[in-house]
Design a protein that fits this description.
mainly alpha; elongated
């Protein structure tokens, strides 16, 4: 079920959204929803180049493996 939210925008920002939505022949709501989802997903996952950098760092990979092992064994202290 879809939800309705209220979004307060400055006039100049609103105009940017209107122009972008018109250029893509879609509603402002759809434009904002799509852009927000893209941004959230972009922050949740790493791209291929970033993952290659992570995997190339042997010290980091070893620390991640050790942390995963300790979490599985429920060792350590969780901080909130």
């Amino acid at each position: 079920m879809s939800k309705t939210i209220t979004l307060r925008l400055k006039e100049n920002v609103y105009k940017i959204f209107v122009e972008a939505a018109r250029a893509e022949n879609r509603s402002i709501s759809n434009l904002i929803e799509t852009a927000a989802l893209y941004k959230v997903r972009e922050q949740q996952f790493v791209d291929d180049a970033e993952m290659a950098g992570i995997l190339a760092d042997e010290n980091l990979v070893a620390r991640l493996r050790q942390g995963s092992k300790e979490a599985t064994e429920r060792k350590g202290r969780f901080v909130e």
